[in-house]
Amino acid sequence: MTPTPMTAEQAAAAWSTLETPTEPARNEPAFTKPRKHYKPFSAAADAFVHEAQNTKRFYTGIRKFDDEMRGISPGHLALIVGYSHSGKTLLLLEMLRSNPKARIAWWEPDEPNTLTLAKLASLVHGIPARELEQKVAQGDKEAISLLRSVAEEHFPNLIVFDKSLTPSALNDGYKEACDVWGDSADITIVDYVDLVMGAEVVPQKMDILKSFVSHNEVGMIAIHQTSRSGGAEGREMTISSGNYGGEQHATMMIGVRRKKAAIMSELIEVRGKLLRNPNSEALNDRREELAHDLRIHEYTLSANLVKNKRPGGSLVDEIDFEMDLSTGRLYELDDGDLPQQYLNTFGAPAEPAPASYEQEAF
Fold first, then answer.
1. SS3 94
2. Residue at 318 is within a domain
3. What is the widest separation between alpha-carbon atoms in the chain?
4. Quick check: helix, strand or coil at residue 303?
5. Which stretch, 7-16, 18-27, 88-97, 219-228, has highest mean pLDDT?
C-alpha cells in the first residue's frame, strides 16, 4: 500500500513538534572528559607576551652572539658543545666574568669548587694561575685576600655544587639556592651533560635537564662534549656535533674548538706523505704553511653559534679569540688580527718558524 504524501502544512506541523537541540557554547568544547594534552592556541600568545616582557635574560657578553640570541630566557636550554679540552669551560668562565653579580647555580661534579674559584680569581684579576697558587701556598696575605674577594665580592651570588648530579640533587640544590638568594636564578649551569645521573643515554639526560628548566622557569647553560673519535681532528662544530644526540633539545647551541687540533692533524698527515715523497714541492710548501698556522693558533680558541631558535635570530660564523695561556682570559680578535702572544714570541709573521718548533709540537 502506497503511503499518502504529506502536505506542506502537515510537514511544518510535524517539525514544530520536535525539540530543537541545544547548541554548545562557542567557547566551550562539546565534551566533558578531562583534558591532559589540550590547551587553547591562544595560550601561546600569553606565553609569548610573558617571555618577551621578562627582563630576566642571561647575556653571554659576546656581542655577536647576544645580538642574535637576545639572551637566554627562563625555560631555555643553551648548549656549549666541543671536543675534549677544546676550551668549553674557558668560554663559560668568560661569560661569567661579564656577569659578576648574577645569581648563578652551577653543578660541576667533575671537579672540586676550589679549582673553579682559582680559575675565576686568575681570570678576573689577570694573575697567572701558577703564580697565584704559589703565593697562596707561601701564605701571601694579599693573594689570600684576593682569592676571598672573588668569592665574597666579585661573585657574591655564585653557588657551586660539586657533588653527584642526580635529578633530586638538581632540584633540591636549586631550591636551596633560591632560598639563599630570596629569588630565582638568572642562569643555571651544568658541566657537563654526560655527568647527569638517572639516565643511561644522552637524549634521556637532556630530557631531565629540559624538564628541570621548564618546571622551574629558569634558563640553563649545559656543557656537552662531542665523541672522542670525532674530536681528534678539531673540526668546526655543526648542528650534529653533539655526542649521541641532544642537540634537538637545545634552544641555542654554541660550538667551541681549537683550530690548533685540526692543523696538527693535517700536519701529521702531510709529514707522513713527505716520508714517501720527500721532494714534493707542494707538500713541502703545505708543511711550512701549517707550521706557521700552528704557531698562531697555539693561542686561539674559536666559537660559533650553530643553532638559534630565537625568532628572527641568525647563526653566527666562527669568532676567533686570543686565549691568554696563563690566566685563561679571552680577547676577541678582529679579522686579520694576530694574537699578541704570538707576536711577542715569534715576532712579525714573515719571520721563519724555528726549526725546533714542529718537532716540539709532536
1. helix
2. yes
3. 119
4. strand
5. 88-97
